[in-house]
């Protein structure tokens, strides 16, 4: 049964979206989209105190609507912004912390690879999840910009000159092909023209065409390396999914979900307290465990519990994704933490210390999303109409 689970679960049509979104993110990062988005973000907010940090977050928000990957987001934006911030006198650990925390937006703003996993495990519509992630992702981005601004003002980081309208317009025009990526991906899904899986394929073709023929930053020689990297990452994710499905089967046979639900409801009958306990559990679990296995392990166990307390599965999906997004930049195994620390050439320990205020404000946003369901449910209800 274990080997059957590992093989059969990966035959799902929904999961075909995973390798294509991974490939699209890699092509976008190599095709110069990150550089154009960064230039546009600089023209918009570079003049504000701590403007380079703010534009890092803004660029990550824009890139998140294209790649669906926190690692691709952090690598594409960080490779440009960390050297720029260091050159202007920003502390390297702070620059790395901004990039690492902003990279987490890549799994909240649609398209999102973790949302594909949650949709597969929970049965919730992937299209609804993509719509629901827009407002939480924007909230996280605005909160990180506020945190970066406060720290920049207190430390006296330099302000960039205000660009002219002509320069702003030029950077916007240069960025239009990149900015159209979320429109192509999400527009097709929301209008019902394509499924999320088909939209992922379209994203790959679009990223290849723009990177190779519009921006000309993507060389044909880069494609084999990108395909190899995509294949390696996809293989890891698929193996994790298979193992998670096998574990889910074992837990079902042993009636673990019912036992766990009985135990946790015996602690309290308050919906507020149950959600607090689940948030604490996910934050602790997300520290030592990577996002994909943590999501696949916890969703089949926790979803039946929250349903008993009237929590919408779509809303719970946002709680899980934002919770585990925080773990992406948290020690000891956060992906964006290691990527940003390497790009900044500073230790993971120093970057982790600089991340504390960013993680704290992310937790505040998580509580807002947890206890105010309209942040997750309002936009999908509007789109359904």
Give a quick precis of the structure.
With 385 residues, the protein is an all-alpha fold. Helices cover 79% and strands 0% of the residues. It has one domain.
Describe the protein's architecture and organization:
This protein is an all-alpha fold. It has one domain. α5 packs parallel to α17 (335-344) and α6 packs parallel to α18. It has helices at residues 2-8, 17-30, 33-45, 51-67, 70-87, 92-103, 113-122, 126-132, 134-155, 165-190, 196-214, 222-253, 256-267, 271-286, 291-308, 313-328, 335-344, 348-371, 374-384. The protein contains 19 helices and no strands.
Notable traits:
385 residues; mainly alpha; 19 helices
Can you write the helix and strand succession as a string? HHHHHHHHHHHHHHHHHHH
| Class computed from helices, strands and strand pairing | mainly alpha
The share of residues in extended strands comes to under 5%
Average the pLDDT over all residues and give the rounded result. Answer: 84
What's the Cα radius of gyration? 20 Å
Morphology: globular
Q: What is the CA–CA distance across the termini?
A: 43 Å
Could you describe the largest sheet, including whether it forms a barrel?
A: none
Helix % is over 70%
Residue stretches low in confidence (pLDDT < 50, at least 5 long) are none
Number of domains: 1
How many DSSP E strands? 0
Q: How many alpha or pi helices?
A: 19
């Amino acid at each position: 049964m274990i080997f059957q689970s590992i093989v059969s679960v990966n035959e799902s049509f929904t999961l075909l979206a995973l390798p294509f979104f991974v490939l699209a993110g890699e092509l976008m990062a190599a095709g110069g989209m990150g550089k154009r988005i960064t230039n546009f973000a600089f023209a918009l907010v570079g003049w504000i105190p701590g403007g380079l940090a703010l534009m890092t977050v803004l660029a990550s928000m824009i890139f998140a609507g294209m790649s669906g990957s926190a690692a691709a987001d952090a690598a594409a934006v960080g490779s440009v912004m960390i050297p720029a911030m260091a050159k202007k006198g920003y502390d390297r650990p702070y620059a790395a912390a901004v990039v690492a925390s902003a990279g987490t937006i890549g799994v909240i703003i649609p398209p999102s690879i973790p949302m594909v996993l949650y949709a597969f495990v929970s049965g919730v519509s992937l299209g609804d999840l993509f719509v629901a992630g827009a407002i939480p992702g924007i909230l996280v981005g605005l909160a990180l910009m506020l945190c970066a601004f406060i720290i920049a003002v207190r430390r006296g980081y330099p302000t960039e000159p205000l660009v002219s309208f002509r320069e702003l317009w030029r950077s916007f025009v240069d960025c239009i092909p990149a900015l159209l990526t979320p429109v192509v991906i999400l527009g097709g899904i929301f209008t019902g023209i394509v499924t999320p899986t088909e939209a992922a394929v379209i994203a790959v073709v679009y990223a290849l065409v723009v990177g190779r023929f519009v921006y000309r930053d993507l060389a044909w020689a880069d494609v084999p390396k990108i395909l190899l990297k995509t294949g390696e990452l996809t293989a890891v994710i698929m193996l994790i999914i298979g193992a998670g499905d096998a574990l889910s089967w074992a837990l079902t046979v042993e009636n673990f979900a019912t036992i766990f639900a009985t135990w946790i409801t015996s602690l309290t009958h308050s919906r507020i307290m149950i959600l607090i306990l689940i948030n604490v559990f996910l934050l602790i679990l997300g520290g030592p465990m990577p996002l994909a296995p943590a999501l696949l392990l916890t969703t089949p166990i926790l979803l039946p519990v929250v349903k008993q307390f009237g929590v919408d599965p779509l809303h719970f999906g946002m709680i899980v994704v934002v919770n585990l997004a925080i773990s992406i930049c948290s020690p000891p195994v956060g992906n964006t933490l290691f990527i940003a620390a390497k790009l900044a050439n500073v230790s993971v320990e120093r970057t982790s210390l600089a991340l504390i205020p960013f993680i704290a404000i992310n937790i505040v946003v998580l509580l807002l999303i947890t206890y105010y369901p309209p942040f997750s449910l309002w936009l999908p209800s509007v789109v359904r109409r």
